Amino acid sequence: MLDAIVPIGEGVYFTGAFDPKIRTFDIIMKTANGSSYNSYLVRGSAGVAIMDTVKREFSDDFFARVERLCSYDEIRYIVLHHLEPDHSGALEELMRRAPDAKLIISHRAVLMLKGIIKTDVAFEVANTGKEISLGDKTIRFLSTPFLHWPDTMSSYLVEEGILFSGDVFGSHYYDERLFDDQVGDFAYAFKYYYDHIMRPFKQHVLAALKLYRACDAIALIAPLHGPVLRSNINYYLDSYETWSSQKRFRKHEFGQKMLSVFYISSYENTQKMAQSIMVGADSIEGVRASMYDLASLEQENMIDLMEESDVVVVGSPTVNGDAVKPAWDLLSSMAFLESAGKIGATFGSYGWTGEAPQMLHERMRGLKFRLPLAPLRIKLIPTAQELSECVAWGKELGEIAMGKVVEMTLE
Three-state SS for 241? Predict the structure, then answer.
């Protein structure tokens, strides 16, 4: 592929690198088809702009492509849409080779830049509407924070109708044919990428889509990973809008609050608590309560259920001074969701020390759940009286979901 110069538009070229062997990205994502670190070069009548770099280990490929397209003294601008290492890995060396180039970043990227390059460097900040000129080519910037880091932004090449989207519309899919209408079937990778990277930031996705749709006409989307998109732009825009807007359960049509009780139980003691909590919560008008056994719940279903839940209640027995793994797996799935503002609560039975509910409580606090009630613990087999207390605890959670104001617990 290094032997080929790949134009993606008039005076616009691919300068990225391919990583066919990577099988796990950022610890959490599987990459069965490898990935790419996309970079682009824009040549205008008055100079060149480099749009992002690549992961440090692939710098040689990046510089080889750049050097076939321009000399370093032609580079007027270096634009970083996102400062994660897979896109900024060659930045410091590029700035050394092109010392007269101006670095353009978002205002949220300033502190991050200092962490990447330990010396002071000159840069300009771009917000929505700022433009830079390459003579006959104009690059307009769009502020699109939290997609998926606070520093992210996008840009639009006005004359060519090219959207440099950053991580938005990306996919971990290696195919050197590059364009979406030439590569293999990457639909699963496109959706998988959205679910794991963009799904926690749905409201930010929708805000970004408004900016994108306000562009005169997008002819091509150039993301930071995966195929360059040119065949049906509205399909990709509409897919992101649908995924970021959809509600999976009809409860929203009736204004109901969804309260989900997730539990794992060794000897049915925590299960009995879960059943009573669900009964109590479901008795509150406007609340629909459900319970789910974590021993048999797949992660994808966990994510869907938690996303639609207004209240997430997690129960685990204490085993060897800890909550059991399925409970931790449930909370780790929140990495794919926006949890701030959701109500959370924890409970569980125990035989000796009973740390599990409090440990889960603290983890939910770190995930920005609202935690109005102290963890509920019962030793060994719940009595009838204790199960009644579970019902009352569930009722209070339901009332809180419906607007009851209580002082948040600091336990």
Answer: helix
Q: How large is the C-alpha radius of gyration of the chain?
A: 25
**HSE-CB for 160 with a 13 A CA cutoff:** 25
Burial of 166 (0-12, 13-18, 19+ CB in 10 A): buried
Residue ranges in the chain modelled with pLDDT below 50: none
Tens-digit pLDDT profile for residues 334-381: 877 877 789 999 999 999 999 999 999 999 999 999 999 999 999 999
pTM for this model (two decimals)? 0.79
234-277, pLDDT tens digit by residue? 999 999 999 998 765 555 556 689 999 999 999 999 999 999 99
pLDDT at site 249:
57
Q: Residue 138 and residue 120: Cα distance in Å, rounded?
A: 28
Nearest to 103 by CA among 34, 53, 165: 53
Q: Which two tokens stand for residue 214?
A: 């306000």
Cα distances from 93 to residues 125, 257, 321, in angstroms, run 21, 53, 50
Ordered by where they begin, the domains of the chain are 7-245 (3.60.15.10), 250-401 (3.40.50.360)
Joined tokens for residue 382: 């719940």
Nearest to 62 by CA among 53, 72, 71, 51: 53
Distance between CA atoms of 289 and 281, rounded to whole angstroms? 6
Measuring CA to CA, how many Å separate 298 from each of 283, 295, 304?
28, 9, 10
**CA-CA-CA-CA torsion for 90, 91, 94, 98, nearest 10 degrees?**
170
Beta bridge pairs of residue 104: 79, 124
222 contacts 157 by C-beta, under 8 angstroms:
no
Residue 121 region by backbone torsions, left for phi larger than 0, else alpha for psi between -120 and 50, else beta: beta
Cis amide bond preceding 204, omega within 30? no
Q: What is the dihedral of CA 322, 327, 329, 335, to 10 degrees?
A: -110
Handedness of CA 132, 138, 143, 149 (dihedral sign): negative
User: DSSP of 76-97, one letter per residue?
Assistant: EEEE-S--SHHHHTTHHHHHHH
